[in-house]
Write a structure and sequence with these properties.
With 328 residues, the chain is mainly beta. The protein has a single domain, classed as Distorted Sandwich (Beta-galactosidase, Chain A, domain 5), CATH 2.70.98. Helices cover 9% and strands 39% of the residues. It is built from 4 helices and 21 strands. A 10-stranded antiparallel β-sheet has the order 7-8-9-10-21-17-16-12-14-13, with helices on one face. Strands 6, 11, 15, 18, 19 and 20 form a 6-stranded antiparallel β-sheet that branches. Strands 1-2-3-4-5 form a 5-stranded antiparallel β-sheet, with no helix packed on it. The longest helix has 11 residues. It is globular, with a radius of gyration of 19 Å. The two termini are 24 Å apart. The relative contact order is 0.17. InterPro entries: DUF4380. It comes from Dyadobacter helix. Pfam families: DUF4380 (PF14315). This is DUF4380 domain-containing protein.
Length: 328
């Protein structure tokens, strides 16, 4: 059996007076090595600061991060077109954010300290490091380290969760990304059967789970979600001819947070004045976190145009083959 705490590099921190010297602790975190010590990668793109937001450009792709808004990814563009939703669709749920799982620990809304309040920010080489304030409920601080690699054309997001409370807690990391409607999400099927109110718009072909957005099939009552176990460690979303691929470490059902899924999808309500959005989400392992300990978790993002001749339709084996090659 894999030793998850060791794999996620648990580290200790002196917590003396942590509740009374939060600013000092944030400064310490900014100065600490992140999830692991690596030589500076010279192939990383140089971040720019424009109007308070940070921008990382890799070829025809641009990722923008706003420290003042929960260090969320506010846009992910290819050829100047944003793949994510912005605040005009929903002024609370937009862009890409990070939560702690399970949701049953906090219900709604998510922790403001983690989701939407300002993060401290520092540049370490060609990497943006962002640090939240302490979440009052969990006693945790979330750190994000974001970089873009010119050589691979990918973007790496590293999350670190540190327990500043005086008690042991248990949680999982959770990345939540809002994209436009009328797209297609797909990922390899894991061990457990998927559940949720969006099943009417799903199918499985050759071990791949497909969710095709269909406005007319959105549930009138109940949840508009999918909870599933994935495999191979990737999740993809296609809108028109552009695909977002997320690559991450696969998590077994036994390591998933209670009542959650390794891969989750959500479709918001659609009204006459609002076209809604879709969330593509994935979670890491559900870990026990002792006081003063941290764990790290990372996701690689790729954004590309589909090659000519590959159609974004459920069951297209050529599309799956192309994504599998991209994540190798």
């Amino acid at each position: 059996m894999q030793n998850w705490p060791q794999m996620y590099q648990m580290t200790g921190i002196n917590l003396s007076g942590a509740r009374h010297i939060q600013i000092f602790l944030v400064v310490c975190l900014l100065l600490m090595p992140f999830c692991e010590i690596r030589a500076q990668d010279e192939s990383n793109a140089i971040p720019e600061k424009i109007n308070g937001r940070y921008r990382i450009s890799v070829g025809n792709k641009v990722m923008e991060i706003d420290p003042a808004r929960g260090a969320r990814i506010t846009s992910f563009l290819i050829d100047g077109v944003n793949f994510l939703t912005d605040s005009t669709i929903n002024d609370f749920n937009w862009g890409s954010t990070f939560w702690l799982s399970p949701q049953s620990d906090w219900h709604w809304p998510p922790s403001a300290a983690i989701d939407n309040r300002p993060y401290a920010v520092a540049l370490t080489g060609n990497v943006i490091k962002l640090i939240s304030s302490i979440d009052p409920l969990s006693g945790c601080v979330v750190s994000k380290e974001i970089s873009g690699n010119i050589g691979s054309g990918s973007f790496l997001i590293k999350y670190r969760v540190t327990n500043f409370s005086g008690k042991t807690t248990k949680l999982a990391p959770w990345e939540v990304t809002r994209v436009k409607t009328n797209g297609l999400a797909f990922f390899p099927v894991g061990k457990n059967k998927a559940r949720g109110g969006l099943l009417a718009s799903t199918s499985v072909h050759d071990g791949i789970f497909w969710y095709l957005y269909q406005k007319e099939k959105l549930p009138v009552k109940g949840d508009r979600q999918i909870y599933a176990d994935g495999a191979e460690g990737w999740l993809a979303q296609v809108n028109k001819d552009v695909v977002l691929i997320k690559k991450f470490r696969d998590v077994s059902p036994e390591m998933t947070a209670p009542k959650e899924g390794e891969v989750e999808l959500f479709a918001s309500e659609v009204t006459k004045t609002n076209q809604g959005y879709v969330e593509i989400e994935h979670q890491g392992p559900y870990l026990e976190l002792l006081p003063g300990k941290s764990f790290c978790w990372e996701t690689t993002w790729l954004l590309a145009r589909l090659p000519a001749g590959i159609k974004p339709i459920p069951g297209n084996s050529a599309l799956v083959k192309w994504v599998r090659q991209a994540v190798q």
